[in-house]
Amino acid sequence: MSRSAPSPIYTLRGAGGPLNCLHFSCHGGDTPLLFSGSGKGAIHMWNLNTRRAEKIVEGHCGSSVVWVGTLQGSETLVSQGRDMQVCLWDLSEGRSEVMDSVCTGSVGFCQCSVLETSPGTRLLAFAGQQTEEIKIIELPSKTAVCTLVPDAKLGMVMCITLWQPDSGPGPLLLAGYEDGSLLLWDVTQRAKLSQAKAHPEPVMCLTFDTKCLRGISGSSDNKICSWMTDRQNNLQLQDCVTLLNPGVSQLCIRGDGKLLASAGWDHRVRIFGWKKLRPLAVLQYHTDLVLSVAFSDHQDPRQRLLAAGSKDQRISLWSIYNEAADTG
Amino acid sequence: MVVTISKMESLAPNAEVRLAVAQCFRTLTTSTDTKDIITTLHTLHSYLDEGPESRSSSVQRAEFRRAHFSRTLQFLVSNIQADWLPSLTAAQRTELWDGLFLKGPPEQALLVLMDGVGELRAGTNLDHVVSITEKFLQRGRLADLLWSYCLQTAPSDSPQLRETLLARIVALPDLTANRLHLKNKPLFLPQQYYPLLATEMLTALERTCQALKDGTDCSLTFVAQTLGKVCIQGHSGLVLAVMAPRLSVCTRSDMVWQRVCWKLLENVPQRWMESVLTGLVQAVNGPDALGRIIGNLALTNKKAQFVITHKLLLLQYKYETRVLRTVLGHLAADRERRPLLIQVLRSLSQAWANPSAVKHTPLEQQLYVSKALLLSVSLLRDAELQELRSELLQCMLGGMQSHLDSSVVRIRHMGMVVGECLSSRMDINNTKLKFEYDQDEETRALLSLMTPVTGDEPEAEPCERVSVVASPRETPSTQNVPSQNKSNTEPDSDLDSDDELAPYDMSADEKMSKESPPRYLRDCLETLMSSEDPERVELSLRVADGLVRKNVFAAREISVQLTKVLLHMEDKYSMTGFLSVRQAAMVALTVTDCIPVTQYLTSEFYSLNYSLRQRLDILEVLALAAQELSKPTAEKRDPSISIAGATDSTPYPGEDPVHWRHVVEKRIQSKTKRLRQGVTRPPAEASPNRYAPVAGHFFFPLLSNYDKPQVTFDLFGGDHLVLGRLIHTLGLFMHLAVNAPIAAQMGCALLDFVWSVRYHVDQMVRRGVLFAVCSVFLSMPSQNLLLDLSEQLFDTRTWLADVAEGDPDEDCRSLAIQSLVLLDKSLKRQLQDQQALSTES
């Protein structure tokens, strides 16, 4: 007997624009926070206890915010806007000032990826000025580490993710391109390790589970494809799931590696079991494209939330599959 | 000289015995000395004791058994209240008094005992006789009785005596129950007695087998008569449940047993043959066992042949499919019996194809005949099939036509399945019939009959050994199963981790359409009329219902036009749920703008160039609309509930504004004491019935044109499907019009209308008619019923009684009974009211 379809536990309104990106910061500090970036250039900092926007910062001259993230707990905020700027904000002690900014030169939608290499230093990967170019710089020194350009014509860089494998010496980078290809780069060697054609359409989003070296990507068609990297760092395509309606704007894996959420263009968030990609639930609430999903990083697994941001200017929060969570 | 001496000698012991017995009687009547009594009883015993130490000669004993035993027992029973009887010790009484009943010829003892049970008054004496009877049964004296008749040692008795004895044996439970009432012994209950009788018969048969092997002749007439009489009295189930399995096992390897069984059944009198056979085919498991027990009885015995080939297959349709399998398998199993199978197949196929049978016999019987037909076809060999091919083909074509013509869905399905099976079995130029029908339990059961049961079903051995052996074998296997499962799941438990997450209901997940649905009714109409885009048409059709109800004024402007469009709409794009969506929209239109739309629909019902489907649609829409109108309008919602409904997320407990109010209210309710009795809630608010004022618009136009035959629509000819629906719908209108002022007129008109079709051949029409009559009696005020219909009521009653008795359709019969009850109730109420009025005035 299947349970009836779930409904959101609450919603956040008043962002005043489509919600391009969401980011939870719940593990440290006393108030759980949710950052959201809107299409009107505002970054909201939602207090999840009061369910109100605690702070609103505008730093991208009104152009759309495509990505937000935090560094060092929630002290430093990173945001990327369509004004080709990546800004670092100091949020400590109630401040909200731009500490630093980097000009990416990219007019695309590709979200940045950040990787902490040692305390205090981190790598920032972003799409560069040229069509297929990915640049990686070191922060806070802003020294360029490398520029990765594929040999073949693959179209724009659509999404990237940077990670440090347990075995290898240097960080690796996964990138999805406009023609549907996925490329695995070695950052220190500045060389392409492998390539796979995952989709016939542009890769809209990808996410990677570093624990089991398995990732999944979504496209503008009605398939999401999972793949994994083997010891020789070869990309191998695995199973595909066909969705009822085409278009996925974001994918997110929960911290415990059990759930996968997809933000669909069909106004719905879909939940899958991450191991076998078994469809588990369809979350229907939004009335327009869902643009972003995020799982919270609560330490207590029972408090974990799923947030979905939509073009209809609302964020819905869901509490799903938290009962059976015995292993965090 | 020699002759006279031998006569003298033979006379002498007879007289001697008579004298001795008379002397004994005298002593027993007059003596008061216990010792005398005991010696006398011993003397009587001596005539029964066999063996060397016996004091009497064998001639004397035979004479006593022949002529004096019954007399003695009768004397004892009639003197049961004698003074000396209580003075004997219990052991003496058991040995001397009771023992007499258990020793001599059992048939005489049984007769005397049963007479005693019948005559004695309730009391200790009766209890005594009853306990002796119990002992008599427990000691297996019944088997001795039957066996004595097998050996024909029993005196050549008169037929009357034999008849009485049979009656006593067979009816013993009835006799004792009538006499003893609640004090009846458990052994005399049918559930115990008849199995006992069955085992005693088996014992007698076993002794017969043994005797035959030893070369003695036996007669089974009496056992056969007993069996027949038990069966005809309706105890065949109990008796044969014991006998059939045992016989089936014994006849397996033993030819003597088989011969004994055959002889037994041959000897069953003709008039009881049927009940024995019907009991037997139900009790045996499988055609082989039946064949071993009855042999070729069907060939030698006319009565048996008639029962097996005709009654069991064509007339008595109450048996399970298993019985059919047994009977037909039995006919097919032997070369000599196969002609019978072919004969049966001929008559079955004729019965199946008979068009009047399709119309006039009960559905269950038709199903039964279909099953039998399929089974016998599956049993045919290919060569035989070739012979019968033309006949079968004839039967198939004719029968399918009459089945498919029927208006009952189950009959049509039956025709389709049988047609498919026959055609696939006959293999006509490698073509097969294939129908589209929904598989249900019935069709699956029919289809499964074509696949023969593989292998003989294992016969249930009556010995317990098997089950004892089987049970320990099973237990380890059941223990194995979970452990295997465990070992299966363990290695890949990691992979299974998705399964612990139970999926939510995802049925609401649907494909998104690119088009947005129309927001105005006129756009909707426009699209439905002119658009060729399937998606837009579908969306428009889906929202039409809601739009009509939302904007009543807009709907009234275009109601008839939209109805026309919807009525003529075809499912061009094979939408899912097209019919229901279209129907919902039309119902909404009829409800919103009742009079013009009903006028339009009812006039179209009788006009040219509509398909049957469209006419049925009209009727359905009208019926649904009338139903909706007659329901009280949906009550206004509680404001607090509507607030809760408006919040677009299901609220978390704790933040729900209704929640605390609810809690507080509940608390107040629980603390408040109400001193009033009865309903605490205010009664439901009265709202006007929206149907009553317009009922006539639904009803009368449909009655006005029915007898005008048209080229394309012949209501009273071939289109009886529509006629049935029409009458049913009219009945529904009538039913919904209860309490409406117009109901009386409607009732009169409806009764008039249905009168001409009350004996229609189609059962759907008849059901409709009876439903209409029911609703007339339900809805018409009783005073009108008596005043307006007084002259028709009598005829109606006779007709209803006739239907209730003789209609082949079960629904028709029950509906007729229901209408009779309703009519009586209504009339009674009216007459009582009149009486009350007259006494008041």
Automatic annotation (TrEMBL), chain A:
Keywords: Repeat, WD repeat. It comes from the Eukaryota. The keyword Endoplasmic reticulum does not apply. InterPro entries: WD40/YVTN_repeat-like_dom_sf, WD40_repeat_dom_sf, WD40_rpt. WD repeats lie at residues 283-320. SMART domains: WD40. The keyword Repeat applies. Pfam families: WD40. This is Guanine nucleotide-binding protein subunit beta-like protein 1. The lineage of its organism: Eukaryota, Metazoa, Chordata, Craniata, Vertebrata.
UniProtKB/TrEMBL annotation, chain B:
Residues 334-431 form the TELO2 ARM repeat domain. Residues 452-502 are annotated as: Disordered. Residues 474-488 have a biased composition (Polar residues). InterPro entries: ARM-type_fold, TEL2_C_sf, TEL2_Regulation, TELO2_ARM, Telomere_length_regulation_dom. Its main location: cytoplasm. Belongs to the TEL2 family. PANTHER family: TELOMERE LENGTH REGULATION PROTEIN TEL2 FAMILY MEMBER, TELOMERE LENGTH REGULATION PROTEIN TEL2 HOMOLOG. The gene is telo2. It comes from Cottoperca gobio (Frogmouth). GO terms for biological process: 'de novo' cotranslational protein folding. It is found in: Cytoplasm; Membrane; Nucleus. This is Telomere length regulation protein TEL2 homolog.
